[in-house]
């Protein structure tokens, strides 16, 4: 009787584990689909942002009426809501300065 009960518990454990594996496989497939949808959504948003960026730069002109070169300038949005067109060099040097501050704070 004890051996029979032991075999029964073992079979129940195996069945529960098989059910868990099946549920996890279903969940994995669902997560793969969700990941794929998110990736497509991100790609679409990136494309829309690039289109918007090009559209904005095609309309921007400097003081002499010449278009801004998107390879040399970036659009910077401040926390106060203002939007500026600044040279990429300034952004890169500002990022380096910020990274140096963060490294000093970590030390």
From TrEMBL:
Start and end residues of each BZIP domain: 2-49
Organism superkingdom: Eukaryota
SUPFAM superfamilies on file: Leucine zipper domain
GO terms, molecular function: DNA-binding transcription factor activity, RNA polymerase II-specific; RNA polymerase II cis-regulatory region sequence-specific DNA binding
One Pfam family per UniProt: bZIP_1
GO CC aspect terms: nucleus
Residues of the signal peptide: none
Descriptive protein name: NF2L3 factor
Lineage of the species this protein comes from: Eukaryota, Metazoa, Chordata, Craniata, Vertebrata
Gene name of the record: Nfe2l3
């Amino acid at each position: 009787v004890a051996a029979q009960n032991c075999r029964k518990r073992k079979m129940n454990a195996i069945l529960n584990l098989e059910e868990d594996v099946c549920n996890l496989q279903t969940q994995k497939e669902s997560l793969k689909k969700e990941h794929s949808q998110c990736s497509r959504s991100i790609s679409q948003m990136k494309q829309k942002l690039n289109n918007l960026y090009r559209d904005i730069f095609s309309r921007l002109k400097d003081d002499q009426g010449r278009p801004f070169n998107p390879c040399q300038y970036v659009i910077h949005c401040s926390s106060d809501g203002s939007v500026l067109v600044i040279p990429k060099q300034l952004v890169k040097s500002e990022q380096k300065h910020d990274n140096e501050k963060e490294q000093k704070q970590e030390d």
